[in-house]
Amino acid sequence: AMLDPDSGLSLTIARIVQRLKGSSLHSQLERQARVSLHKPEIKLESLKEDIKDFLKTSGWEKKLQNAVYSELNVFPSPCHPAAPPEHMKEPLAYMRKAQGSWEKRILKSLNSMCTELSIPLAQKRPISEQKELLNKWNEMGTDEPDLSLFRPVYAPKDFLEVLMNLRNPNYENGEQPSFRNHLGLIQVPLKVKDIPELKEDFSELGLNIGQLGIDDSAQVPPEFFENEHVRVGQKVLAEQDSAAAQQYVRQGCPTALRADLWALILNISNQPE
Q1: Which one of 32, 162, 211, 221 counts the least CB within 10 Å of its CB?
Q2: Which tens digits make up the pLDDT trace of 187-206?
Q3: What is the domain partition of the chain in residue ranges?
């Protein structure tokens, strides 16, 4: 069950705070706050506000904003606190049932193959083998073991058959054949965006909007747009704003700025440790 907006927001804030508490950013912020206590502009009577101002002017507030934005991007829709984990992962019961039966089928196939080949699935490697693996860790990509004895765990047609047989028990469209029966093999009534909603979501791909590497618009010379786009990209990087970077790359990502922009969007460092 979904929560009302206020409760959902409170739950989201609480979970993000909990996740960030164990991060390196949290310890860095604490360290910077302690350092600021020795600065003359920090007054005891306005300690909290002065430390906030210090973190803002020193760039740490921006780093915290980027971390929160990064968490929001991967955060699932808030569910009721009493909802079990499997419901939060997949709210549709008939989908969970289909997933469970498919997983059992995969496990049965995998166990059967491993039994035939005498390969243990849940056994820790001996120390000698662990050391050997660590010694040639960087060469493992070039190692080409004989895989001819391993067969596919499932056939694509079996998976397609499972998808074709998915039916929502709460959806009844009658036995009468209609044009909808011929729209595709998979007949699952999932809510999807209509054409106007898709146009709104992907407005940056409109023919009247500049897009790096695509010459749809004749009104603006491609070279002019590219130069301006690179200039804006450099400004976004200077601001170190993760949300602005994500919005910016919707119109294309210049090759020279790609590494720095994606590091900013993903809130990671692309510098060597």
Answers
A1: 221
A2: 777 788 899 999 998 888 88
A3: 5-87, 92-120+151-171+179-191, 204-265
